[in-house]
Each structure stands twice: as structure tokens, then as C-alpha cells.
Amino acid sequence: MFARIRLVLIILITSLPAMASNLQASRNGDFSHYTLALAWQPGFCKLSQSCQMPLNSDGALGLLGLWPSLPASLREQGVTEESWRVKSCFYFSHSIDDPQLSDEVQARLARAVPKLLDDDLISSEFVKHAQCFGFAGNDYFAKALQLRQSVLDSSFGSYLKNKQGSMVDPNTVRQAFTQAFGAASGTALSLRCLRDTQQRNVLTSLEIQISAQKVNAFPAEASLWQQEGAGASDSCYGPIWIPN
């Protein structure tokens, strides 16, 4: 009987989906935080001729990437935040090989990442933002997917879903974020918008700053990274249209 119970437990454990491993840079790890970049796909793809929502999408809030911030070693050499955002890993000697991904992670990415007709977003994100830090491709994307899912499952994710097709005040969006992740999280959020042909301020993406030392604790309030000047990096001015 005990042998049968042990066999059942082994089957159950091995059949569970793989959990995202802890993410830890093995080189160039002198950076303070990550940016979890999420596309609001109805807006992101509507305003781009080269973008399509993935087939069998599992949510309007798609994954764009998980971006380490400017390493201190480069900052000391005079590299600016703006330059880092443009070049990132190209400041270092690095490989341009595609990430090695499990079938499970590939399938989840296929449902979460917008499809760019002129670029492989998954490979380009890994080459630009991940491989120079020594992350294994599977660990990096599994963690990014886990973080995105935490946002989708939060009350903030529900708020965005419920506001599809509505015009909202950006302060209300930020309030929904702090209600979901804690009062101290307010400055961790940046909202990105573009104007459509009707001159509406269309939500295209949002960025969440997460402490590099506490990324594995997200969505705990203490894991959010506090930016200087709440909303200083927003590009949404005035009421925001959340398309569906």
C-alpha cells in the first residue's frame, strides 16, 4: 500500500507545471531594479502596422520584456539612462544566440507575447536585455511570465480588464495600482500612451519597476522599486482611452 501511495505522489509531483526559478544575474549584476514591460495589446497593436495579438491570447495585457536597469559600472563610465534603454546588452560583449526554451515556456510565450511581423520579439528581447547578465533563457522568460501572471491575477489586472472600452483618468489608474500592490508602490508604475486618429490618448503599454534584490518576492509591496518623481516617465497626458 505504501508503495502505491509513494508512486501516486511521484506522479502528482512530476505532473505539476514547472515553477519559475529564482532569477539571479551571474555577471554584470550591479543594477538596482528590473522594468517589467507589459503591452496593452489592443492599443499596442492597433497603433502599429507590424503588430498582431497572439493567437489564443490569454489576456489583453501582453508581455514585452523584463529589463535590468543601468549597471553601476556603466553609469560610472558616463553611460546615461537614455543610452542604456536604447543599447542595453550591446554595451557588453555577448552572444546573439536564440534562448533555449522548454516546450512549456514556448507555449506560454506564444499566448502572452505580441507578434511583430518584422521581428522575433522573444529572441530580440533576450539578446538585448538578458543574455549579457548570464540568465538562462528558460529561467528568464519563466520569471517574466510569472511576474506578468501576478499582475493579471491582481485587482489591478481586473481593473484594466473591466475598463476596456472606457476613458479613464490616469490618477484613477494609479490609485487602482496602489490599491493592488500597496500604498508605497505608487511611484513604481509608468503609463505609456500614443495618440490615435481621433486624438485619443490610447494606452499602449505600462512599466512596473521591481527591485533586483526582491524580484522573487513580487507582488509583495516591498518588492516594488521607488522611482524619483511619481509618473515622471509617463507618456500619458490627460484622460486615457483603454481600447478593447
TrEMBL record:
Q: Name one Pfam family in it.
A: Ribonuclease_T2
Gene Ontology biological-process entries: RNA catabolic process
> What name does UniProt use for this protein?
Uncharacterized protein
Select a single GO molecular function from the record's annotations and give it. Answer: RNA binding
- What does the UniProt keyword field contain? Signal
Kindly give the InterPro entries that the UniProt entry links to this protein.
RNase_T2-like, RNase_T2-like_sf
Give the protein family.
Answer: Belongs to the RNase T2 family.
Signal peptide positions are: 1-20
Keyword Signal listed? The answer is yes
